[in-house]
Write a structure and sequence with these properties.
Four copies of one chain form a homotetramer. Chain A is of the alpha+beta class and about 300 residues long. Helix content of chain A is about 45%, strand content about 10%. Chain A has a single domain, classed as 3-Layer(aba) Sandwich (Beta-lactamase), CATH 3.40.710.10. The first copy, chain A, has a five-stranded antiparallel beta sheet with strand order 3-2-9-8-7, with helices on both faces. A three-stranded antiparallel beta sheet of chain A has the order 4-6-5.
Chain lengths: ~300, ~300, ~300, ~300
């Protein structure tokens, strides 16, 4: 496949969505993102890396980090995690408290905020440094030693984080946090505030396409666990629009309100697209359009 | 009326409930309450005070304090409060987050925990010391200078208060708190941890039966506002069992998980009954039985 | 009291709401109501009857009928009804299915539609003619032999009644109907479609102010049951606005989407006000304003 | 691959679940199913058909029929369907009314009962005979002219169908049915009551693995639509356990309370497994275990 040309086509589809969607503004530090920015990258299991547009420009990965914290917990043999968090689509917005109350503090899946807090809490218990472990994994897989946490964004999230604090206290009230609320929130904001580029994320997610094997061939996850993570991504990775994303794009994927979407073509490649303007469900309008165009052109959906 | 005999009869009805209900154990300091304790007092608008059983023994007033903080806000001309909190029965448990999310951070009424937090927040803004103002009002009306906050209980509530912290952060995330979450919680726990006896509370609540007039004749509320507070008590004062309390007792009333229930006979008297064991809705089994017996014997319901 | 003058004052308050609210239009037959119509009547326990405006003009009583079907079931010794329907405020709109599902087919109270269907079903089992029994009670108490069911309205409701049919089938699926869905709906529409005037309804509701005694002195309900019905009216009678109605008017009351509101002053009188335009909760704007003015002027609230 | 051996292995895994789960008993006609029955079949795109156990024994396909009615609507160019039904996981049981009320009569996806009723309604409008069209499609693809509707089951469902009637009336109250409630229900029960074997269903579902091509090579769906249907199956096909099914089995699949599960290996084959005992979410315990074993052994998940 001519990936360069395919990425250019995808970018054209993304550009056609200009003017649609809204940049996340719940924290000031995100609100300043460039609405015209767009990038896309692919990292194949046979070692190719291609990109278009702003594919090497770092952006705030936000909830894309939830994928990596989950993987790190599972890599530590963390199957017991599934007693503390489900793996069903939630049918509710990512930050909803309703389901959490109805289901006694067990978040529906690891990608809604409440579930991700439980994952971060577990990773913190396992490693002592949840945010740092996520950052190190991204650095190692991307080979980018400059990949770093944006401290302004982390501080801005903490200062405007009453909803996440509510979720964390609610989890704690149900005995579903092992660490102090403040610590868990600090690491959660720390991992969300990592800045990485499409190139970085495509490389960092490639092990999910490669049966769990890291960049140098070391095993991060078993092949079976890599498949399972892809399953959870497909059913739960794009908030309350997972069904639509599966319908249009047909790939496991994880989005963040920074505008990035990381998607997996099992056995072949990881893709990352980025554009700051979000649709009503919180997914990047441009990134979804680009991925849609890419899978339509290539037939590379899992279905 | 022979109030002494009526109170003895009511106590017999309360004693007949022995063994039913459960003492609140969500904080250790409450769990140690004496399951056999029972007291009841009446304070009439013409100055009589009568009591039976442990009517002079202090207990933790808990949510009964919500009535007094509401009255103090209204006494400060706080009608604007009703833009921040409703006055409809909630149809949900007192500590539920569900309705709060559905209704964008406006608590259904001032007696569910979320609503009471908003009231405390407002009282804190108006006076600088919400918990202290509630305590001073109780001292002045009861004439009991020893009435005090139980610091152990306040500390225990704070240490086990993740659910209230979740509610407060959720309110803050919707811009419905004026003060810092930590401050509001501190004053909320402070007012709930006041220890008072049935005698103290019957005297302290008498102004609601007396058209808003305090013990010495000074006006705390307008007659119209006193009626309105009674209306909110009747529809919302006993958590998710307000309908049943109205059906059985037929008086405006406010309960707390310490086992106290303060009830108002408009134009005539305030009553307070206390027994630590609670029913499923969080109301004292013995106190409700005693009030039921009292209004059945006297015909003194509002209906 | 000079009831005539008080009613005129109340009518002035009602007239001042002209232009507010919306006439119910979910069935064509109701949509044609005269937006300028207003009437109000009082029937005292000592036999006085007074009225103003269109107080002798019949209107569709709709949900006001739910009060009479409930009373008839209780008059037949129907205390077992409370195993099939609760008596707590619902916190949800009158026609909601949500709570019904969460609570396994037990409606929250007898005045939301689902609860009223259960009451009608029970009355049908007890008497063989639920709608007819309600109509006969109204005729007897009002002394108006012309009081009748509006067949056009009943037919219109049946033709547009998918939501009530959904509620009835849902009740049936939980085993909470004794008769066929179609029969229960027919009687439900039949009782709702009764046309009566403010005069008729004030007279018909007077027994609730008179300790359960009917017009000629015969007993319909025990004094205790009359109080209990008043309690359920106050906490549940005006849909999702019961708290606000208690706060403003301070009387037990039952409203209907035909624009009528029947209210009870225990020990003294029944009042009925009518104006077709409804507020968002489905209560008559003019009728609530008139009752509010009346109780403010007289101090005749239960509080 | 040695499909015969793989199917025998899968059957062993299914047999190991003996005693777990419960046979659906909401209608008498289903309650009599043989708890020891088990069958499994595969139909590959290159024309192979294999089976084990009771793979040629007909069972009630129930909700598996929803897949075929959806496909028939899409095959008729029914993309407008997506304005009347979503394609997101529901996060609620298949027969829930809650979400339907919150979302104004637009079912979350075509596989919960409410959504399937909308699909059947549309198919009825398009063809005049929804149940018949589903049956004819199954007959044609399976080459089994004896495949038929079980009239006893259809009648039993209608007689015990208050919950589906509630859903249908609720849809009608929101204007989301084109045909009469009774007609839609009749066709819905008709399609659910079709009896087919694992062999029949594997053959009938093969076009979803074959880019939309029917048994003789004729096109039923475009390749793109076949992928999209697979996406909806994966995210919504197994009720409230879609996430878990994706995690364990990793294939698009549709289950029914008759105990059948039809799954798709895109590009390769359709599988059908059957065992009457159901787990808490309503999916066959044995069928899911068999499919899990099959994909674990072969690595044939989509991820």
């Amino acid at each position: 496949m001519d990936y360069e040309e395919l990425l250019r086509e995808a970018m054209r589809a993304a550009r056609a969505t200009a003017g649609r969607g809204r940049i996340a503004d719940y924290i000031p530090a995100l609100a300043g993102a460039d609405p015209h920015a767009f990038g896309m990258a692919i990292a194949t299991v046979d070692g190719q890396v291609h990109g278009v547009g702003d594919w090497e420009r770092p952006f705030s990965i936000q909830s894309v980090s939830k994928l990596f914290s989950l993987v790190l917990v599972l890599a530590h043999g963390g199957d017991a995690l599934w007693r503390r968090v489900g793996r069903e689509p939630s049918g509710n917005p990512f930050n909803s408290l309703v389901q959490l109350e109805n289901e006694q503090g067990i978040p529906r899946n690891p990608f809604i905020n409440a579930g991700a807090l439980v994952v971060t809490d577990r990773l913190l218990s396992l490693t002592g440094d949840a945010a740092g472990q996520v950052r190190e994994l991204l650095r190692a897989e991307s080979g980018n030693p400059d990949l770093a946490t944006d401290r302004d964004i982390a501080a801005s999230e903490a200062a405007h984080g009453h909803l996440n604090a509510a979720l964390a206290h609610f989890l704690a009230s149900h005995g579903n946090l092992e660490n102090e609320v403040e610590q868990v929130l600090e690491h959660y904001y720390g991992q969300c505030a990592i800045a990485a580029s499409c190139r970085d994320l495509a490389l960092a997610g490639r092990f999910l396409a490669h049966h769990g094997l890291r960049v140098g061939g070391a095993r991060l996850l078993s092949g079976s666990d890599a498949k399972r993570v892809n399953a959870v991504l497909l059913t739960c990775g794009t908030y309350d629009a997972a069904g639509d994303f599966a319908y249009r794009v047909g790939l496991p994927g994880k989005s963040g309100v920074g505008g990035g979407v990381l998607a997996v073509v099992p056995g072949r490649a990881a893709l990352c697209a980025w554009g700051p303007a979000l649709d009503a469900a919180g997914n990047s309008v441009a990134a979804v359009a680009a991925l849609d165009a890419f899978t339509t052109a290539t037939g590379l959906s899992v279905f």
